[in-house]
Design brief:
The chain has 168 residues and is of the alpha/beta class. Helix content is 30%, strand content 24%. The radius of gyration is 18 Å and the shape is globular. It starts with 6 loop residues before the first strand and ends with a strand.
C-alpha cells in the first residue's frame, strides 16, 4: 500500500500534540490528516473521509482513550473499525496497557516519544499491518505469533513433568 493514499485522524484538543503527531504522520508519508477535538464526535468525524490510522490522545478532558478505541472497534455505526489505532498515554501501568491492547489498539505510546521513531513505526504498520481479528469478544490486531516465525530454536527442555528454560 502506498502511504500517500492513506488518511489519518488525530483525536486531541492539544495543539502541540496535534503538531507533533501530524509531523510524524507526514514523515511516514501520510499527507491528509483530520482532527477531532473530542471523543464525543469521533465516529462522525471518521465518517467524513476514509481513515486508515487514528492516533488518540488519552489526555482529553472527560475522554478515555480506551473507551474511544472500543467505540471505534465495536460500534456498529463505526466507519473505521479496522483502522490502525495508536493510543498515546501520559502515564501507564501494566493494567492500563493490557486494557488498551484488549480494546484493540495496535500500539500504546508513552509520552514523550521520538517523532522519527514513531514515523518509522507508523510507516511499518501502514505497509505491513498485522492480521486482523473480528470476533464477538475482540476486534483488533492479531497478537499471536505466526508459527515458524521464530528464528531461534526452542531452548526449553523437558525434565519429567516440569518445563525448565535455559537462558544463554
Amino acid at each position: 500500500m502506498d502511504p500517500r493514499v492513506v488518511a489519518g485522524m488525530i483525536v486531541t484538543d492539544n495543539d502541540d500534540f496535534f503538531g507533533s503527531m501530524s509531523a510524524a504522520l507526514a514523515e511516514a508519508g501520510v499527507d491528509r490528516v483530520a482532527r477531532s477535538n473530542s471523543d464525543d464526535n469521533v465516529l462522525e468525524e471518521l465518517g467524513r473521509e476514509p481513515v486508515s490510522i487514528v492516533i488518540i490522545d488519552d489526555q482529553l478532558p472527560e475522554c478515555d482513550g480506551i473507551a474511544t478505541t472500543r467505540t471505534i472497534r465495536h460500534e456498529p455505526a463505526s466507519p473505521a473499525p479496522r483502522a490502525i489505532i495508536m493510543l498515546a498515554l501520559d502515564r501507564t501501568s501494566i493494567q492500563r496497557t493490557l486494557d488498551a491492547v484488549g480494546a484493540g489498539a495496535h500500539e500504546v505510546l508513552l509520552k514523550p516519544f521520538d517523532e522519527v521513531s514513531l514515523a518509522l513505526r507508523i510507516k511499518s504498520l501502514i505497509l505491513a499491518p498485522p492480521h486482523f481479528i473480528d470476533v464477538e469478544t475482540y476486534v483488533g490486531p492479531d497478537r499471536r505469533q505466526e508459527s515458524g516465525s521464530r528464528t531461534e530454536p526452542d531452548r526449553r527442555e523437558r525434565s519429567g513433568d516440569e518445563e525448565q528454560r535455559q537462558f544463554v
